[in-house]
Amino acid sequence: MKTKQFILGVALSAVLGGSVAVGSYKLLEDGSIVSIEQQQQNPIVRYTSDMRSSNAIVPEGLNFIKAAQVSTPAVVHVMTEYSGRGGATARGNSPMDPFLREFFGDGFGERAPRGPQMGSGSGVIIASNGYIVTNNHVIDKADKIEVVMDDKRRLTATLVGTDPTTDIALLKVDADKLPTVRYGNSDDLQIGEWVLAVGNPMNLTSTVTAGIVSAKGRNIDILRRGNDMAIESFIQTDAAVNPGNSGGALVNLNGDLVGINTAIASQTGSFAGYSFAVPSAIVSKVVDDLLKYGEVQRALLGASIREIDASFAKEQNLKTLNGVYINDVTESSGAKEAGLKGGDVIVAINGARVAKSSELLEQIARYRPGDKVKVDYLRAGKERSASVTLKNLNNSTELVKRSNAEPITFDGATFEPVSRQELSKLGITGGAKITDVSDSEFRDTGMKDGFIITKIDRFQVKEPADVERHLKNIDSGVVYIEGVYPDGLRAYYPIGKE
């Protein structure tokens, strides 16, 4: 009897267990269907498992709270607007139109598609009176720039200056007593050191991610496309950075600014493991130049250089792989005057070791024309040093200052300087904006108020005074005035001189 009861109990348990298993499966099956449907409706956002707090103790030095609290209030959301452009014909006409298009180049009268476009990135407040650093590519050619503060205030920003060679731009907002981030020394960063990226990726404001410094002096050829003067010596990290992070802060555990987040290595456009930041040593120098001179003062060594690898070292019988090889030096350059020559291997600038060309360019980029640097180099395997006076692109030690152009009146029209923001938006380096056309000698050309003159005949117009100077120097005949309207429309107008 006991045996029968035991067998019956086992059988009943098996039936109940099977029922529970089937019921549980159905519950899970229903849940998985809902989850898949939710994912299909919103494939970008995924739920994560619900975690509970633990009693784990974070080792000292691995707590990011201080750095986040210090830096987040000083990182802003940069919002840009690009006005719609339409049409395909330039204002102004001439029977010589085909010739003029060839003369002035392709693109005359062409516009981008209609409709405003929006863009966004990040910026870092570096001065309490409203100066903000960001990337040049964040604001490049923008019609309007606004910044949204961490406290949600929205302020209009003006462009102070840009440096495409380092991808740095400086903005100004009309505000005071703003929170700031203190500059840190990017030279002190070590491989493996913790850093935080602070910015506004994918319109997710005030986002902080953490990672380590993966490499320094990294050249990724993102700025040098079409720009031989570009400086690439990025800090590489594995802190997650996505579109919208550009121009944001890279800070150390003290919350000090050690870089401006600029690019990611990705085949998809989203973060795939590595991000790159402009070192604060370069950022601070560029900002200082823009504030003092209105232009970045670019110093040059005056030598063409190349990397050294094992095969090249063997070919040239070099004794080291760490250094930068000089192919040749430019006549009248600082390098030439200091006695450097092709075949020398530069190993240090002012005591800072340089093992590759990106590190050498970064060191030189910290100085201005006229500055002297100590260059340690190897010649025939023997160590030498030289004092080199750095020069500019014209082999001069003069500093370039932005002209304080003044409006002028000529032939009844008023010519005004072009704002920095319009120069950036239109992709021009200078010009003169005309107003009061209807009351001037220019009315018969068809030119409209707001037209920015960039060229008269073959002469460049950088400021209003150039218009009067060039037109007065033309004796007679018909000359052509080239320029662009604020909406991006390029145009040309013939004007007769008797």
Question: Would you kindly provide a brief summary of this structure?
Answer:
With 498 residues, this protein is an alpha+beta fold.
Classify the oligomer: single chain
Q: Sheet with the most strands?
A: 7 strands, antiparallel
% residues in beta strands: 25-35%
Which structural class fits the helix and strand makeup? alpha+beta
Which of globular, elongated, flat, extended, rod-shaped describes the shape? globular
List the total number of helices: 10
Question: How much helix, percentage-wise, in residues?
Answer: 10-25%
CATH topology of the largest domain: Thrombin, subunit H
The overall number of domains is 4
Please give the number of β-strands: 25
The CATH C-level name of the largest domain is Mainly Beta
Kindly report how far apart the N and C termini lie.
131 Å
Annotated CATH architecture of the largest domain: Beta Barrel
Q: What integer value in Å does the Rg equal?
A: 31 Å
Poorly predicted ranges (pLDDT <50, ≥5 residues)?
1-8, 10-16, 18-43, 86-112
